[in-house]
Design a protein that fits this description.
Length: 325
C-alpha cells in the first residue's frame, strides 16, 4: 500500500489502439477545441466591448462563457497530448490538477445557471424594481461568490482524496476524475464517499431548488400576465432552459457511467458519455445564446455588415486602381 502522494503517475486505459487513425482523432478534437475557444471568446469580447450589453444578464453570461473556456482548457490540451502519445500515463500532480479543473467547472456551471435563473426571475416578476434589486454591486458579489464557493468546495474534496492509501494506479477513463482515484484506495473510503455525496447533494439541491422556485414564479406571472410578458419570458428563458437540460443530461451520463458497471457498453460509447458534459455545453451554449438573444444577434449582424462593407470598398478601390493603370 502507498499514499497517493507516493504514486508518481496514473495510467489511463480507456484509450483505443487507433494506430494511424490517431491523427484523424487529433484533428477532430483540435477542431472542436478551436471552435469552442473561438465562439466563447467572441461572445466575451462582444459583451465586454459593447456598453449596451453591460447588463446583469450579459454579465452572468460572460461568467458562464469564461467558465466554459476554463473547463475546456482543463480537458482538451491534455486530451490532445494523450491521443498522440503511445503510452497513456499522467503524473499524479497533473492528474489532481485536472480533477480540480473538471469538478470546479461542473460546480461553476450549475451555480452560474442557478444565478441566471434568479436574474430572469427578478427581470420578469419585478421589472420595475429589477435595476434596484440587481445592482452592479450585487452582480459582482454574486459572480465572485459563485467562483469562490466552487473553488473552495473542490479544494476540500481533493484534500480528502490526497492522503488515501492506494493499491494501484489504473484509471479506466480518458481523463482523471476523483471517483476513479477513490476506487483505487485500499484504506477505508467511507469519509470520502460521505463527504463527496453530501457535497454533491448540497450543490445540486441548492441550485436545483433555486431554479425550480424561480421558474415556478415565472410561469405563474406568464399565465396571469400580458402577451408581451410571455414573449419576453420565452425569449430569455428558452436558451437558459436548453443549456440547463444539456448540462444536466451530460452530468447524469457521467455520474451513471462512473458509478455503474459499464463493461457491456462499447468503449466508444463510454468515452462519449464521459466527455459529453465537458464538450457539448461549451460548444452549444455560445451558439444558442448568440442566436437566441436579440441584442447579441443585432450586434453580430452589425459586425458582419461593417466587414462586408469594408470588403466591398477595398474591392472597389482595387478595381479603380487597375482601371487607372
Amino acid at each position: 500500500m502507498m499514499n497517493s502522494s507516493q504514486v508518481s503517475y496514473f495510467t489511463l486505459t480507456a484509450y483505443l489502439d487507433s494506430g494511424a487513425l490517431k491523427y484523424l482523432y487529433f484533428t477532430v478534437v483540435a477542431f472542436l477545441y478551436i471552435v469552442i475557444v473561438t465562439v466563447n471568446v467572441l461572445l466575451i469580447v462582444v459583451i465586454c466591448v459593447n456598453r449596451s450589453l453591460h447588463e446583469p444578464m450579459y454579465m452572468f453570461l460572460c461568467s458562464l462563457f469564461v467558465n466554459e473556456l476554463y473547463g475546456s482548457t482543463g480537458l482538451f490540451p491534455f486530451l490532445l497530448l494523450q491521443i498522440l502519445s503511445d503510452v497513456h500515463t499522467v503524473s499524479a500532480p497533473l492528474c489532481f490538477l485536472q480533477i480540480f479543473c473538471v469538478y470546479s467547472y461542473a460546480n461553476l456551471q450549475l451555480s452560474n445557471l442557478a444565478v441566471m435563473s434568479y436574474d430572469r426571475y427578478l427581470a420578469i416578476c419585478f421589472p420595475l424594481q429589477y435595476h434596484t434589486r440587481m445592482s452592479p454591486c450585487k452582480v459582482s458579489m454574486l459572480i465572485v461568490l459563485t467562483w469562490f464557493s466552487s473553488f473552495l468546495g473542490i479544494t476540500l474534496l481533493i484534500s480528502l482524496s490526497a492522503p488515501l492509501q492506494l493499491c494501484g494506479n489504473i484509471i479506466n477513463k480518458v481523463y482523471c476524475d476523483n471517483y476513479s482515484v477513490v476506487k483505487l484506495a485500499c484504506s477505508d473510503t467511507t469519509v470520502n464517499n460521505i463527504c463527496g455525496i453530501l457535497g454533491a447533494i448540497f450543490i445540486t439541491i441548492s441550485s436545483v431548488t433555486l431554479i425550480l422556485y424561480t421558474y415556478m414564479r415565472i410561469l405563474k406571472v406568464c399565465f396571469s400576465g400580458s402577451k408581451q410578458t410571455r414573449q419576453k419570458a420565452v425569449s430569455t428563458c428558452t436558451p437558459h432552459l436548453a443549456s440547463l437540460l444539456n448540462f444536466s443530461c451530460g452530468s447524469f451520463f457521467e455520474t451513471a457511467q462512473s458509478r455503474s458497471n459499464m463493461k457491456h457498453v462499447p468503449n466508444m460509447v463510454r468515452i462519449f458519455l464521459s466527455l459529453y458534459w465537458l464538450i457539448c455545453p461549451p460548444l452549444c451554449n455560445p451558439l444558442l445564446y448568440g442566436l437566441s438573444l436579440t441584442k447579441i444577434r443585432i450586434i453580430y449582424k452589425g459586425l458582419i455588415f461593417v466587414k462586408c462593407r469594408c470588403l466591398m470598398l477595398k474591392l472597389r478601390q482595387g478595381s479603380a486602381l487597375v482601371k487607372r493603370k
